[in-house]
Write a structure and sequence with these properties.
Keywords: Cytoplasm, Lysosome. The protein is α+β, with helices and mostly antiparallel strands. It contains two helices and five strands; from the N terminus they run αββαβββ. Helix content is 27%, strand content 37%.
Length: 90
């Protein structure tokens, strides 16, 4: 799985305006991080995703969109893996 995840990370990092990405397991353990994504944020991303899932527990996990003046972060859970993608705003 590690080689597959590394391949996904590399593909994401080639996307225009992406500055970093991170993936974590359901316990908040960082599985992969690249670019501006810091390994210490893995647990926070998982916690944000878990809290957002509580809003409508019978639906699939939502995509969370956080933004500042010039940056944004997309957080999404798929199964037991939560991913975060950091980008410059367009």
């Amino acid at each position: 799985m590690e080689k597959e995840l590394d391949k996904v990370v590399e593909e994401i990092m080639l996307t225009p305006k992406v500055t970093g990405c991170i993936f974590a397991d359901h316990q908040g353990l960082c599985l992969a991080a690249k670019g501006t994504a810091h390994v210490d944020s893995a647990g926070i991303l998982v916690a944000i995703s878990e809290q957002a899932c509580k809003l409508q527990p019978n639906l699939k996990p939502p995509t969370i969109y956080l933004e500042s003046d010039d940056k944004m972060c997309l957080i999404q859970r798929h199964g037991t893996i939560t991913g975060g993608i950091f980008k410059h705003k367009e």
